[in-house]
Specification:
- This is ABC transporter ATP-binding protein.
- Keywords: ATP-binding, Cell membrane, Membrane, Nucleotide-binding, Transport.
- One of its GO terms (molecular function) is ATP binding.
- InterPro entries: AAA+_ATPase (IPR003593), ABC_AA/LPS_Transport (IPR051120), ABC_transporter-like_ATP-bd (IPR003439), BCA_ABC_TP_C (IPR032823), P-loop_NTPase (IPR027417).
- This protein is an alpha/beta fold.
- Helix content is 40%, strand content 23%.
- The radius of gyration is 19 Å and the shape is globular.
- The N and C termini lie far apart (38 Å).
- It binds adenosine-5'-triphosphate (ATP) and magnesium ion.
- The site of magnesium ion has 3 residues, from helix 1.
Length: 252
């Protein structure tokens, strides 16, 4: 489903990604790990076309993403969450999730302005889709609440909901466990497993929480200083000497 080929990104003198290649099969959970500054978010930003790549290619279902502009990514079936939350704080939980559903909706500006029957039917379908996500993420009790008034752990789930509402085939999650407490991380793990089953999608997950990554991923890709240093099942990667060194080298 996803194939990253020799991807290179430079910022001035820094090579944030250095000929990174890996592939991910449909329906899998792929963990992307590595110390701070390893290039994980940069890779996400290339996949969602926020960053320009200097070299290499990214194929999604056999098609080059580099020929798709950032606004066309959702229509292909790729959604993401951000390391720092990106929600509309004065809007409700349900409105935020509905916006996610809209990001993939068809229909031109004129059709919407005239509120043609086709558009109305589509809006009903999107609303139903948003409600389904609200239910799946157990956000029903806070669906009408303003995002700004809710605790951080809930907001992480709202952001996940916003991304899911676009019905992605590939969901990119940047540190979904970041800032969550122990109990919330356990809940997130169950939630992500359930989502993969119920919505049959692929997940690419950046995470520092090693326990979560190792327990949930089918495949783990490790980066260090922009280079891929390991790629395999959690068990294979766990025993990789270079990976252990990359983490221990960064330990205080
Ligand atoms: N927009 C940018 N401009 C300049 N340098 C950047 C930019 N984005 C990332 N970098 C640099 O690229 C390297 C990789 O950064 P990146 O944010 O991808 O790391 P990361 O693996 O996501 O780290 P973290 O775990 O801290 O989130 C770092 O040296 C960073 O300073
Ligand atoms: Mg990052």
């Amino acid at each position: 489903m996803l194939e990253v080929r020799d991807l290179t990104v430079r910022f001035g003198g820094i090579t944030a990604l250095d000929r990174v290649s890996f592939s991910a099969a449909a329906g899998r959970i792929v963990g992307l790990i590595g110390p701070n500054g390893a290039g994980k978010t940069t890779l996400f930003n290339c996949l969602s076309r926020l960053y320009r790549c200097d070299e290499g290619d990214i194929l999604f279902e056999g098609r080059s993403l580099l020929r798709t502009p950032a606004h066309g990514i959702a229509a292909l079936g790729i959604a993401r969450t951000f390391q720092n939350l990106a929600l509309f704080r004065t809007m409700s939980v349900r409105q935020n999730i509905l916006l996610g559903a809209h990001s993939r909706a068809a229909g031109g500006f004129v059709a919407h302005a005239l509120r043609l029957p086709r558009v109305r039917a589509q809006e009903r379908a999107l609303a139903a889709q948003a409600d389904e996500i609200v239910e799946l993420l157990e956000l029903g009790p806070v669906a009408g609440r303003r995002v700004a008034d809710l605790p951080f752990g809930t907001l992480k789930r709202v952001e996940l909901g916003r991304a899911l509402a676009s019905r992605p085939k590939l969901l990119l999650l940047d540190e979904p466990a970041g800032g969550l407490n122990h109990e919330e991380v356990g809940g997130l793990m169950e939630l992500l497993r359930g989502i993969r089953e119920r919505l049959s999608l692929s997940l690419l997950l950046v995470e520092h929480h090693m326990n979560l990554v190792m327990r949930i991923s089918d495949q783990v890709v490790a980066l260090n200083f922009g280079r891929k240093i390991a790629d395999g099942t959690p068990d294979e990667v766990r025993h990789d000497a270079e990976l252990v060194k990359a983490y221990l080298g960064n330990a205080p």
